[in-house]
């Protein structure tokens, strides 16, 4: 699986005209892929708007690794710590919008997000007193709604 990821990702990057490499670490049934040696302008291309390109690369790698395989291997792709920074940003956004919902006593609808990002919002606010969250809409336009109880 490590060799498959390395070859496949290098082909994807070369097709995107991006110079870079990857570090692949296997931890049990999980592969952690970090895209490295990439300049900042190419970084924006690889990550895409709100991580959409990075998510697409992760999905393609997951398909390539798990093709003709009985035991599933989860593939997580990151680029220079983007996923952690995005998680921190989403947690700050969740807390800020929770305060807004309490203050205005109106529900606050966030922008549409993928399931992973919605889960971060729900988790960040699940123990906040007086705040309730739920998702509404259909994918890919599904969004989190934050409201005061």
Please provide a written account of the structure:
- With about 150 residues, the protein is α+β, with helices and mostly antiparallel strands.
- The protein is about 50% helix and about 25% strand.
- It contains five helices and six strands.
- The protein has a three-stranded mixed β-sheet with strand order 1-2-3. A three-stranded antiparallel β-sheet has the order 4-6-5.
- A hairpin with a 6-residue loop joins strand 5 and strand 6.
- It is elongated, with a radius of gyration of 18 Å.
- It starts with a helix and ends with a strand.
Descriptive key words:
149 residues; alpha+beta; three-stranded antiparallel beta sheet; 6 strands; 48% helix; elongated
What is the topological layout?
Elements: H1 2-15, E1 21-27, E2 30-36, H2 40-47, H3 52-66, E3 74-79, H4 82-104, E4 108-109, H5 115-125, E5 131-136, E6 143-148
Parallel strand pairs: 2-3
Antiparallel strand pairs: 1-2, 4-6, 5-6
Helix pairs in contact: 1-3, 4-5
């Amino acid at each position: 699986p490590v060799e498959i990821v390395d070859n496949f990702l290098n082909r994807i990057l070369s097709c995107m005209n991006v110079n870079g490499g990857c570090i692949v670490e296997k931890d049990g049934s999980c592969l952690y892929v970090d895209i490295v040696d990439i300049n900042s302008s190419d970084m924006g291309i690889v990550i895409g708007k709100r991580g959409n390109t990075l998510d697409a690369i992760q999905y393609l790698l997951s398909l390539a690794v798990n093709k003709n395989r009985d035991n599933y291997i989860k593939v997580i792709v990151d680029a220079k710590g983007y996923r952690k920074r995005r998680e921190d940003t989403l947690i700050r956004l969740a807390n800020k919008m929770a305060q807004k919902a309490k203050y205005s006593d109106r529900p606050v609808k966030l922008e549409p997000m993928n399931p992973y990002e919605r889960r971060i919002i729900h988790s960040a606010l699940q123990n906040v007193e007086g705040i309730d969250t739920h998702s509404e809409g259909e994918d890919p336009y599904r969004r989190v709604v934050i409201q005061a109880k």
